[in-house]
Amino acid sequence: xxxxxxxxxxxxxxxxxxxxxxxxxxxxxxxxxxxxxxxxxxxxxxxxxxxxxxxxxxxxxxxxxxxxxxxxxxxxxxxxxxxxxxxxxxxxxxxxxxxxxxxxxxxxxxxxxxxxxxxxxxxxxxxxxxxxxxxxxxxxxxxxxxxxxxxxxxxxxxxxxxxxxxxxxxxxxxxxxxxxxxxxxxxxxxxxxx
Length: 194
Description:
Number of strands: 0
Radius of gyration: 17 Å
Strand content: under 5%
Shape: globular
Largest sheet: none
Order of helices and strands: HHHHHHHHH
Number of domains: 1
Structural class: mainly alpha
């Protein structure tokens, strides 16, 4: 069963950073770009847990979803400090909407990235997504949030290795990821036939 993703809309007025267009971001000098990424990271790392803070963080994630569908932006962000922060927040966030949307940003990043540096913590993201799927195996709604991101990351690694761009050891894929994926596929087939 494929869950249709709802199109994301962010509110530029409620964003705590300027809602730069893709064109504006791509034309930025390195220092301005780095400042922008730093501000996004510090907003994501904010530990406030009130409703306003949650809404604000979700709005920021919706904005990121609109940015990372552009290849150049995805390439720059997956190699920036944003990617490790997304992984850390995926692990730490108490709010499941935030977790689901972080997974969505990660999945979109992986889907639209064409250049990947060796130090990008892809293995760490795969391990965490695998754990989250395993822990929430009976919750099909949550599973459907995390599975696309896991699949996109695995595909990204496979395509890079196929092109011989990086050695296999660069991004080790835990065997648990394949086990969980196969189990999800088997269960999915059973549910579909049932």
